[in-house]
Amino acid sequence: MTTLQSPTMASLDIQLLIDGAWRGGANGSMLPVIDPATEKSVGRVAVADDTDMQHAVEAAARGFATWREVAPFDRAHMLQRAAANLRARADSIAVTLTTEQGKPLAQARAEIASSADTIEWFAEEARRCFGQVIPGRTPHAHVVTRLEPVGPVAAFTPWNFPVSQSVKKVAAALAAGCSIILKGPEETPAACAAMIRAFTDAGVPSGVLALLYGDPARISSFLISHPTIRKVTFTGSITVGKVLAGLAGSHMKRVTMELGGHAPVIVCGDADIPLATSELVRMKFMNAGQVCLAPTRFLVARPVYREFIERFRELSAALVVDSGLVHGVAMGPLANSRRLLAVEELVADAIRTGAKVACGARRLDRPGYFYAPTVLYDVPIAAQAMNQEPFGPLALIRPFDEIEEAIQESNRLAYGLAAYVFTRSISTEATVTERLEAGMVAVNRIFSSMIEAPFGGMKDSGYGTEGGTHAILNFLNEKMITRFVG
Fold first, then answer.
1. How many other CB atoms sit within 10 Å of the CB of residue 348?
2. 196-211 pLDDT, tens per residue?
3. Quick one: which of 113, 145, 201, 289 is 20 to 30 A from 428 by CA?
4. Residues 404-455: tens digit of each pLDDT
5. pLDDT tens for residues 130-185?
6. Buried b (16+ CB within 10 A) or exposed e, 70-94
7. Where in the sequence numbering do the catalytic residues fall?
8. How many CA within 13 A on the CB side of residue 62?
9. Which strands sit side by side in the sheet containing 13-14, from one edge to the other?
C-alpha cells in the first residue's frame, strides 16, 4: 500500500490570527501537535493569553463596525472567493488534516469539499436576509422589520471535524455581517488555520476574523463574559456545553449549541439487512467513530438479530485499519490518547457486565492510538457504554421484540441529536420517526453532509441549527420599525 508523505514540522507551526496579522502568543507559549498514527510531535501551536484575547476582542469590535457596512452582495463575493481558495488548496489541507487528526485521506478530502460547499451556501444566503412589510392596524401605520447583524461572535469548535465544523460558524457569521473570533482545536490546529487563511486571502478585512488557541476554559470564560461579544456558538460535549450555556445566559448572550449524541438505530424485522449493515458499518466507523451522528445503540428485531450481528461483524472485521495516509485505508487511529483510554474502559466495563464480543475489543499492537473496530452484542442496559457517548469505534447491539420497546430505549437517554430507522413499512416508518426524540432521523440510509438542511438536536444535545435556510438567522437581530404617515 502507498503512503503519502506527512507535512513537515515547519508546516504545522501554527500561529494566532489577531487584527489581520498571524503572530505568536504574547507569552511565547506553544503546545505540541501530535500525529495520532505515530504518537510523535509534528509541530506546535501558539497559546493565547489574556493580552492576546483582549487585542482580538478590540479588533473584532472595530472589524464589526466596518464589516456590517459592507453590502451583502459584496460580502457574498468575498465568501465565494474564500470557497474557491479552499477548493484550490484541498489536497494539501487534506494531508495536513489526516496527519494531525488521523482520519483517512478520502474522508479528509470530503470534509474540505463539503466545507467549500458550506461557504458557497452562506454566500448566497447573505443576499437573502430580507425583512417583512406588515399591514398596520390603522390606515396610517406602516410596519416593517429588518434583519441586522447581532455583533461580534465567539465561536468554539471541536477537533473531530476541525474544518467543516468551524466553517459553519465562520461562513454564517460573515455572511450575516458579524465579526467572529474562533477558538480553534489545539489537537488539530493546522487544517483549521488553513481554512481561516482561505478567508483572509479572499480579502476579509482586518479585525473581522480572528483565530485563537490555548486553554479552552480560560478562553471561553474571557470571551463569553466580555461585553463586546454578543453571540456564542459552540460544538462539543454536553458537559462543556452546559457550562458555556450557563455562562452565556448569565450575560444574556445568544447561544447556539451543537452537542453530543448517542444515536439509536432501530432495525425492524422487515429491514433490508444487507443494505442496513453496509450503510451502518460505514457510518459507525467513519472517523474511528468520533462523530456526533455516529450510530451507537443498535436495536435489532429478534427475528433478524443473528443475521444482523453476523453481517455486521463480517464487514467490521474486514475494515483496513492503518494510518490515514495509507492508500485504501478504511479507518485510522483515534485522535488522541484520551479517546483510546476511554474506549478501552467502556469495552472492559461492557464485557464485565455481560456483553459478548463479536469482533475487536482490543488495542492494535503498534505505535499510534489504534483500536480495532469493535462489535459487542447482548449488551446490558447497565453497561456504561449504553449510557454515555462512546465516541469511538464501538457498536453496541441489543435485540427487541416489540417496536414500542425499541422506541422507549431510543428515547431513554437525555441525548437527542440523531437516530436511524431501517424498515420497508411506510406505516412503521411514520410511527417511529414521529415518536423518536431526535433532531435528525435517517430512514434506510446514513446521514450525509447537507448544508441546505438543518443540523441540530433536542434535549441535552443542544438547541439551534447549523444549516438550512434558518441558520443565518442565528447571527441576526430582527428589528421592528413602525412609521405613522399622514
1. 12
2. 999 999 999 999 999 9
3. 289
4. 999 999 999 999 999 999 999 999 999 999 999 999 999 999 987 789 999 9
5. 899 998 888 888 899 999 999 999 999 999 999 999 999 999 999 999 999 999 99
6. bebeebbbbbbbbbebbbebbeebb
7. 258, 292
8. 12
9. 13-14, 40-46, 30-35
Pair 398, 266: CB distance under 8 Å: no
Query: Which residue's C-alpha cell is 476579509?
Result: 204
For residue 48, the one-letter residue type is: A
How many Cα atoms are found within 13 Å in the side-chain-facing hemisphere of 330?
16
Amino acid at 325: L
- For residue 313, give every residue at least 6 positions away whose Cβ sits within 8 Å of its Cβ, in sequence order, or none: 358, 359, 375
Distance, CA of 439 to CA of 459 (rounded, Å): 9
For the record, the C-alpha cell of 27 comes out as: 507569552
The neighbour count for residue 137, using CB atoms within 10 Å, is 7
Q: pLDDT tens-digit profile of 352-405?
A: 999 999 999 999 999 999 999 999 999 999 999 999 999 999 999 999 999 999
Q: Is 52 exposed, middle or buried (0-12, 13-18, 19+ CB in 10 A)?
A: buried
Q: pLDDT tens, 295-321?
A: 999 999 999 999 999 999 999 999 999
The owner of cell 459592507 is 70
Q: Which cell is 436 given? A: 423518536
Q: Are 437 and 416 in contact (CB under 8 A)?
A: yes
Domains with residue ranges and CATH for the chain: 10-259+461-481 (3.40.605.10), 263-451 (3.40.309.10)
